[in-house]
Amino acid sequence: PTSLELLQHIPSGGAHPRHFALLEDRAQLVVAHEKDGRVTAFDVAANGTLERSGQGVTIPGACFVLA
Q: Are strands 28-33 and 17-23 parallel, antiparallel or unpaired?
């Protein structure tokens, strides 16, 4: 059996993260924030940790990410 292990804590880059999508083919995690409409992206490193990609956009009303 596989066990889960906490690798890190990282700020989500916006107010009230509501939904996220893991884009495995791009090794990215995209997060939508309900309160400020910010959508941010993180690069997923080979060891599973997240790194800020510097990519993000404000979309009023954004609360869902569709991969």
A: antiparallel
pTM equals 0.86
By the 8 A CB rule, do 15 and 39 touch? no
- CA 11/CA 65 separation, integer angstroms: 18
Please name every residue paired with 19 in a beta bridge, in sequence order, or none if there are none. 32
Average pLDDT over residues 49-65: 92
DSSP string, 1-67: ------------SSSSEEEEEEEGGGTEEEEEETTT-EEEEEEEPTTS-EEEEEEEEE-TT------
